[in-house]
Design brief:
five-stranded antiparallel β-sheet; 12 strands; Rossmann fold; alpha/beta; about 30% helix
């Protein structure tokens, strides 16, 4: 097990791992490996778009070491659980609007200090802005037509000055007709007009053929 370019991420061959904050427990059936008394969780890029983004060449500083994180579209907590491993000192506010998914997220939070589930619609950041306060990192993975707009509104409401974030843009949720390049250009333009500079961009194929990852930071 060797350190990867991203802080607190490890590699064994081509596979990514994080140190398990809850030894012995799996979140989504991932592999557990113990090396020199430390338990690592396999980070599946076919289940987590963030793992796919790292494997597609994300910069070494793309994640940083934030103390407050706003995660939009947390679902069952697959990627959230790895962020909990990566940032043990952070408060991770995980927003999910599906009651079914939220129930599993709530169970996960009981095992992981610092993980705060919020049952809410990401299109309405005013409903959780007071709870989150000023976040240093904003992560979004939702299937809505106006994904870039939702990201911008949440950045304006909750992202701290010099804050950074990652938008996982699901192209086919925006449109079924327009080419991917057109959808990405539109999203980049909207982000830039709000003062968010795209620092790195990549498709997530072959792990996810519908997604493009955009790493951003306030201008």
């Amino acid at each position: 097990m060797k350190p990867a370019p991203w802080e607190r991420v490890y590699r064994d061959g081509r596979d990514l791992f994080t140190v398990n904050r809850n030894p012995g427990a799996r979140v989504y059936g991932e592999t557990l490996s113990t090396v020199d008394g430390v338990e690592y969780r396999g980070w599946d890029p076919f289940r987590s778009k963030l793992a796919a983004f790292l494997l597609k060449g994300a910069p070494a500083d793309v994640l940083g070491d934030p103390r407050t994180v706003l995660y939009l579209g947390a679902a069952h907590g697959t990627t959230v659980s790895h962020l909990s491993d990566l940032w043990p000192r952070a408060m991770v506010f995980a927003v999910e609007k599906s009651p079914t998914s939220f129930a599993r997220l709530l169970a996960l939070a009981r095992q992981r200090p610092g993980l705060v589930p919020i049952l809410a619609d990401a299109q309405l950041p005013e409903r959780y802005q007071a709870d989150v306060g000023s976040a240093e990192f904003l992560y979004q993975d939702i299937a809505q037509r106006n994904q870039a707009g939702i990201f911008v509104e949440n950045a304006r409401a909750c992202l701290a000055p010099r804050g950074r974030g990652i938008l996982m843009l699901k192209v086919r949720s925006v449109t079924q007709q327009r080419p991917t390049a057109s959808v990405v250009r539109e999203a980049r333009s909207l982000l830039l007009s709000a003062g968010l500079r795209v620092e790195y961009e990549t498709t997530l194929a072959p792990f996810s053929r519908e997604h493009v990852a955009l790493s951003v930071r306030w201008e």
